[in-house]
């Protein structure tokens, strides 16, 4: 369990998240994801990364129970720094990152896939940012890379989710397949990339990041500032406590 990383002979590195019961990552878990992606980028034998998960869903965001069981602001600050590190590591990974999503992809999960280079999903996959219900803000930066502005705002304000199939017309999800074909589909796309000259692909990744219209790191950090304000006001604690009581 935890975060594992396996480099295949064909240059595809598979990074797997497994944190039962719902892949809500602890503070350390987010930093572990960041470390795995940073390692992948430094390793020139790695030509492409497939980011996937085991369990009921891809990612349920931050482990709120850990946050509420920790006194003071250490867990909150740790989660914010950990998420920032993980999202940055996906975006800045020197090679393309393919997200293979099944089940739910919520909150921090959107930060991971929104910063990925390619998304494939199983037919049961759905995506959403329930942050407003938890007294936090964040990942609008990444959701905005997946849907048009007005839809992003509607999903954000309402906390609604959207299916993988509904994301295909927006171009953010490349392909939706049965669950038992998700890994093979992600690996097939990864193999296309891995077969190319990795020096060119690495240059292409850096070039494409350089022409992005939004600096995703600064944008997300700006969002996090409002999360801190809500915490200082006591609003976030109230809503997180309600969430934990209902579990």
TrEMBL record:
Keywords: Lipid metabolism, Lyase. It comes from the Bacteria. Pfam families: ECH_1. One of its GO terms (biological process) is fatty acid beta-oxidation. Gene3D superfamilies: 2-enoyl-CoA Hydratase, Chain A, domain 1. GO terms for molecular function: enoyl-CoA hydratase activity. It is an enzyme of class 4 (lyase). Its EC number is 4.2.1.17. InterPro entries: ClpP/crotonase-like_dom_sf, Enoyl-CoA_hydra/iso. Belongs to the enoyl-CoA hydratase/isomerase family. This is Enoyl-CoA hydratase. It comes from Nocardioides ginsengisegetis. The lineage of its organism: Bacteria, Bacillati, Actinomycetota, Actinomycetes, Propionibacteriales.
């Amino acid at each position: 369990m935890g975060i594992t990383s396996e480099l295949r002979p064909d240059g595809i590195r598979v990074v797997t998240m497994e944190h039962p019961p719902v892949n809500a990552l602890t503070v350390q878990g987010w930093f572990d994801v960041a470390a795995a992606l940073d390692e992948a980028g430094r390793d020139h034998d790695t030509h492409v990364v497939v980011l996937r998960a085991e369990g009921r869903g891809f990612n349920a965001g931050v482990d709120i129970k850990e946050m509420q069981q920790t006194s003071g602001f250490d867990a909150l600050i740790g989660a914010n720094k950990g998420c920032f590190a993980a999202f940055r590591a996906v975006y800045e990974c020197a090679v393309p990152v393919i997200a293979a999503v099944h089940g739910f992809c919520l909150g921090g999960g959107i930060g991971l896939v929104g910063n990925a280079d390619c998304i494939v999903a199983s037919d049961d996959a759905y995506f959403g940012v329930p942050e407003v219900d938890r007294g936090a803000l964040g990942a609008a930066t990444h959701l905005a890379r997946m849907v048009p502005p007005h839809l992003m705002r509607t999903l954000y304000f309402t906390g609604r989710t959207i299916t993988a199939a509904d994301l295909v017309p927006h171009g953010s999800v490349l392909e939706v397949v049965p669950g038992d074909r998700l890994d093979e589909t992600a690996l097939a796309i990864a193999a296309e990339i891995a077969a190319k000259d990795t020096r060119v692909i690495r240059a292409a990744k850096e070039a494409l990041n350089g022409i992005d219209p939004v600096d995703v790191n600064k944008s997300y950090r700006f969002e996090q500032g409002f999360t801190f304000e809500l915490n200082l006001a006591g609003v976030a604690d109230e809503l997180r406590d309600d969430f934990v009581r209902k579990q």
